[in-house]
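G., the chain you wanted modeled:
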Amino acid sequence: MTTGACYHEFIPIGREATRLIQHPAQRSARGRPRRQQYFFICVRSTRNIDEVSIVASSDHPPDHALATQLVHADRGIDTDSSVAPPIYPSVTYRADSAAQFREMATEPRHPRFYARYGTPTHARVEAVLAQIEGAQAGLLLASGMAAISCSALALLQAGDHVVAQRSHYMGTTQLVNGVLARFGVSATIVEQGDTDAFATAIGPQTKLILLESPSNPLLRLTDLEAVARLARSKGITTLADNTFATPVNQNPIALGIDLVVHSATKFLGGHHDLLAGAVMGPSALVERIWDMSIVLGCNLGAFETWLLLRGLRTLDLRVERQNATALQVARYLESHAAVAAVHYPGLETHPQHALARTQMRGFGGVLSFSLREGRGAALAFMPRLRLFTQAVSLGGIEALAMHAATTWSGTLSEEQTRAAGIDPGLIRISVGLEAPADLIADLDQALRG
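Predicted structure as tokens:
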């Protein structure tokens, strides 16, 4: 084994190994395994000593298809025998002895101590997210920006340096240019398609590289494997926003990225009815972020957690449908005379289509396009839509559309908006589960005026 290497495997747990397991959900009342389970282990070899940590459990090994993992990855997390997972609204939990209370109070992320630290429902969702992203651990937070912000604040301190992309979600841009700068963290902004630019931007104080691929709203790509390899060679942590791609289409950790974040409000939840975020990665890093979340109070509520679990069950069905619909819509728009450009990595004309085919399995349910006549045409186009709802957000069962420049102007200055490449005629759409032909017909009538 290579020194310092980390690998994952699933092993059936026998009687002796149950001594390693402390979580009551993983043992029966007599200390015997509840059923044959598989435990996600990390073996780190340092100076010829194997350090073994059990980081997640499931009744199903990871070679099951994604659809099966989404339904079954949280089995064994809770002692409750309900087929439908319960909601745990309780904020606090009873201890039956001083020893048990001490364990509850001192064990990080104990699911039955205080709801800000986690709940059994959180543990279920985090187990599913960790498995489908190929991570050691997952952490739920109150929003996607809570996930990004808590991660950055947990990993950085005054004097550190960050490398970020020019094209990011606007909240991430604000975090880098405004909030982190106030706390003495400097940043260099690069074009995400230029891996050499990342290398040039790295300095002796660089501690974090922030990535987003595909990026919002121009669907630009970052070569995740190349940047991850570069960062690893310098001992720099990488964090990638995988919201647009989802784990159905892309797994950044498999490409060498350290941490993955999601706005779970979007595709993971999938119904426009919850606000949530998540971060997945190595247990040690996730625990550092959890520590910060406890201080900042970024915890997710019980009901939203349960809704997210319900949404995750159908993630692959929804995203596969949205992949197919978005590609059809993109091809239609590309052929329309009123459209100057279509931004969708699934199109052969996308400048990074070859990279998309290398690091993605599907191309997502979001695309953007620019109208030739600019802002006036875009503003006239929007109210003519009938099936597409004019609203922010994305990834749900209903198709949404928005004028990007108007949306970004509420957060970024005109100069920042131009620097991000958002032209006045840019429209972003997120397809839902409607029939592709109906969505195309709606776009067609709106373009005709």
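The chain is about 35% helix and 20% strand.

Shout if anything looks off.
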